[in-house]
Q: What sequence folds into this?
């Protein structure tokens, strides 16, 4: 039987370890970049979803107000309710949106709160 011995020099081992470390570093940086891209996409979808809900709700309110205001012989209390109630809700939402209470930042690498 003919056996051959495999000899590996220290330079080859160092090169293999270097390639392995470089691969791990590239993989981790790719993961971080993908996570940041996904978070940015989620934020833009949240904004688009919010805009859609705002437009739909505004259209619904305007439609109800149009129906009530176009009726002949309407009651004053009904008009007050139809115009006043949405004004209260929109004022509440506007004040709440313009009041900054928290900051939406990504979590740190080491966990949640400290």
A:
């Amino acid at each position: 039987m003919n056996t051959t011995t495999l000899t590996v020099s220290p330079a080859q081992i160092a090169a293999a370890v270097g390639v392995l470390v470089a691969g791990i570093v590239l993989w981790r940086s790719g993961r971080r970049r993908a996570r940041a891209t996904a978070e940015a996409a989620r934020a833009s979808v949240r904004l688009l979803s919010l805009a859609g809900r705002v437009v739909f709700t505004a259209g619904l309110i305007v439609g109800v107000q149009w129906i009530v205001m176009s009726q002949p012989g309407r009651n004053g209390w009904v008009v007050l309710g139809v115009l006043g109630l949405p004004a209260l809700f929109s004022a509440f939402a506007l004040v709440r949106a313009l009041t900054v209470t928290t900051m939406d930042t990504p979590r740190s690498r080491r966990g949640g709160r400290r």
